[in-house]
């Protein structure tokens, strides 16, 4: 028979971890060992063991024997999932930033990146917020939506926002005295990306009355406003 | 001259007052402070604020990190009583002089 995919689920459901529902003899029957045996004339098919690889000629005794048995830690195979996106946040939603450099600004949500962070843009010419990543917890989603169908955000992911690694600082006499001032200039590519995303967005914004002004204004709490009573 | 900046400052926190420590008549537990949040007057209204971060901000004479202003961060943990007072735990216990002082209740971590 052609090699088949190994069965993913055990035929012996667990009642409690360590105790299966079926006994050994029942499992023998369930796994069909009786059928395999019948097929191969009464014995379970076995292969002769492969010839063992010859042991290396000179095996030096280790130089160091640790005094106590050290337990090796179990490797962590856990991969955290990206944060679940709130139902109120859909592509095109206007968000209010609650903290950080642009706190109070109303901003358009584009998509959720694989790390779980949200990709947003001002748009830049409207309120000065560039393409940026933001954490869901620091954002309030409003009910206002912008039409985002004209925008292509496929190329953006977390690597796009990674910081450039600084060159290894080589301590030498010359570098001590000349402090290298690396000019941080925004690469033209990023400016072009910003424009590419913003132009269709701004078209959609201009189509709605007051939306441009709304996005340009900051959100603030006033005396007497209670956030727990506000409808966003 | 510097261009006049209108609406540059935004208030994205709710004002609150520190009422004191969690206590009974003759024992107090300084690890938990009581905070009165402005505009919150019932236990049901407190639900929105649970988990929100708090900052107790105070000024000092000596400069740390180039600033005379210092902050103790905390969180709203649970309501206290029926009238909108809230229990809060801070990273380090609030100093006793904070009683009656202002506290900022931020709107994050947000769930809206």
Automatic annotation (TrEMBL), chain A:
Segments of this protein annotated with the region Disordered: 39-84
Record flagged with keyword Iron: no
Residue ranges of every copy of the Large ribosomal subunit protein uL6 N-terminal domain listed in the record: 7-57
Transmembrane segments: none
UniProt keyword terms in alphabetical order: Ribonucleoprotein, Ribosomal protein
Pfam families: Ribosomal_L6e (PF01159), Ribosomal_L6e_N (PF03868)
One cellular-component annotation, GO: cytosolic large ribosomal subunit
GO molecular function per UniProt: RNA binding; structural constituent of ribosome
Superkingdom assignment: Eukaryota
Keyword Ribonucleoprotein: yes
Cross-referenced CDD domains: KOW_RPL6
GO terms (BP aspect): cytoplasmic translation; ribosomal large subunit assembly
Family: Belongs to the eukaryotic ribosomal protein eL6 family.
The name this protein goes by in its record: 60S ribosomal protein L6
Gene source species: Zingiber officinale (Ginger)
């Amino acid at each position: 028979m052609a090699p088949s995919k190994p069965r993913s689920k055990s035929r012996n459901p667990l009642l409690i971890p360590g105790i299966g529902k079926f006994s050994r003899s029942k499992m023998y029957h369930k796994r069909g060992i009786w059928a395999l045996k019948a097929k191969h004339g009464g014995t379970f098919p076995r292969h002769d063991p492969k010839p063992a690889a010859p042991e290396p000629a000179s095996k030096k005794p280790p130089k160091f024997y640790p005094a106590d048995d050290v337990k090796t830690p179990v490797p962590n195979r856990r991969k955290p999932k990206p944060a679940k996106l709130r139902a109120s946040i859909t592509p095109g939603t206007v968000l209010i930033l609650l903290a950080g450099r642009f706190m109070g600004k109303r901003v358009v949500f584009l998509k959720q990146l694989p790390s779980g962070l949200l990709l947003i843009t001002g748009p830049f010419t409207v309120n000065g917020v560039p393409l940026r990543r933001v954490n869901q917890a620091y954002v309030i989603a409003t009910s206002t939506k912008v039409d985002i169908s004209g925008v292509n955000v496929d190329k953006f992911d977390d690597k796009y926002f990674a910081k450039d690694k600084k060159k290894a600082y080589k301590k030498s006499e010359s570098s001590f005295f000349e402090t290298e001032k690396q000019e941080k200039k925004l690469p033209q590519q990023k400016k072009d990306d910003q424009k590419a995303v913003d132009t269709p967005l701004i078209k959609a914004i201009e189509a709605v009355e007051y939306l441009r002004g709304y996005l340009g204004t900051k959100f603030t709490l006033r005396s007497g406003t209670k956030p727990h009573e506000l409808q966003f | 001259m510097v261009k006049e900046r209108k609406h540059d400052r935004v208030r994205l926190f709710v004002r609150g007052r520190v009422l004191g420590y969690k206590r009974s008549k003759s024992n107090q537990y300084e690890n938990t402070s009581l905070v009165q949040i402005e505009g919150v007057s019932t236990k049901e209204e407190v639900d929105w604020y649970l988990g929100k971060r708090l900052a107790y901000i105070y000024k000092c004479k000596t400069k740390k990190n180039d600033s005379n202003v210092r902050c103790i961060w905390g969180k709203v943990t649970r309501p206290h009583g029926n009238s909108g007072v809230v229990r809060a735990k801070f990273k380090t216990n609030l100093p006793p002089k904070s009683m009656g002082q202002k506290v900022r209740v931020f709107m994050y971590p947000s769930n809206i």
